[in-house]
Specification:
Largest sheet: 4 strands, antiparallel
Radius of gyration: 16 Å
Number of helices: 3
Order of helices and strands: EHEHHEE
Number of strands: 4
């Protein structure tokens, strides 16, 4: 697919999980309830033939609104209180993809970036 348009929202979130790997390495640990800056990004993929005569495929405002709703939820309290599973970035990205894909049929990926500690987790569905 030649085009992927992505939309990104930045917010602060509290995952709520300890980091035994960071602790064992003597690295900075998150304090209980400490928030990190997170970027939630989702991409929509499409082909040249999908472009309208106006030169676009879909309304990014619709995706922005859906991501804003999720960013509000993810930024409102610890993730361990939000999900019935262990809320790693991997599992949350996969969950968000599953929630968004019925509303955004050409959804190519969902990504969570921890901007405080410098990591990205991108969920791409299998074939």
């Amino acid at each position: 697919m030649p085009f992927i348009v992505d939309v990104c929202l930045v917010f602060r979130a509290r995952q709520g999980l300890p980091s035994p790997v960071r602790a064992a390495a003597g690295q900075q640990r998150l304090l209980p309830g400490e928030a990190v800056e997170v970027a939630l990004r989702a991409g929509v993929g499409f082909e040249d033939g999908d472009l309208t005569e106006r030169g676009w495929f879909f309304d990014t405002d619709v995706l922005s609104a859906r991501l804003a709703a999720w960013a509000d939820l993810l930024g409102d309290g610890p993730w361990i209180d939000r999900f019935p599973f262990r809320p790693t970035f991997e599992l949350v990205a996969r969950h968000l993809y599953g929630q968004l894909v019925p509303e955004v049929p050409s959804l190519a990926f969902v990504e969570l970036e921890d901007r405080t500690y410098g990591s990205r987790t991108r969920y791409l569905p299998g074939p």
